[in-house]
Specification:
Number of helices: 10
Distance between the termini: 142 Å
Structural class: mainly alpha
Strand content: under 5%
Number of strands: 0
Low-confidence stretches: none
Mean pLDDT: 75
Radius of gyration: 50 Å
């Protein structure tokens, strides 16, 4: 029974503290700064987010000033000028290629196809032929410095 009374009195004491029977001014005086975890949680909460405040630049600040306008002497051809020049050159070449004046048989077949090709005196060896055939005969060469110095010289 004594244990039961002790439990009930402990429960009444806890309820009294929780329901504010203790002095409320004692809790209000203590201001605890938020912990780093609490500050991080507040920063991650979308309810606390704010839109950034910045001013849009005005148009006159983007345009060149009078000093810069005076410095510019001549407008150069830009990308559009290059593209139009290239396109007109290409069109002129296309017109020249398909012109009826260029469709004569003499211009269709070049002179090299009408005349036989000259044959080479010594055919070049192919890759596999050079790998699997014996080496060609070696030309006689000067083997010492004295032989090279004693060779006939052009006059």
């Amino acid at each position: 029974m004594k244990a039961m009374v002790l439990k009930i009195s402990g429960l009444v004491l806890l309820l009294a503290l929780n329901f504010g029977l203790a002095s409320p001014s004692s809790f209000a005086d203590e201001v605890v700064p938020p912990s780093p975890v609490e500050r991080l949680a507040r920063g991650l909460n979308p309810v606390n987010w704010q839109m950034p405040k910045w001013k849009m630049p005005d148009l006159p600040s983007l345009l060149p000033g009078n000093e810069e306008k005076a410095r510019i002497k001549k407008k150069k051809d830009g990308f559009f000028g290059e593209v139009s020049k290239t396109a007109s050159n290409s069109w002129n070449k296309t017109k020249a290629a398909f012109s009826p004046d260029n469709f004569s048989p003499m211009q269709i077949f070049p002179a090299s196809s009408r005349t036989p090709a000259k044959t080479a005196d010594k055919p070049k060896r192919g890759f596999f032929e050079s790998l699997f055939s014996p080496l060609p005969a070696r030309e006689e060469s000067n083997e010492t410095v004295n032989q090279w110095l004693n060779q006939p010289r052009p006059q």
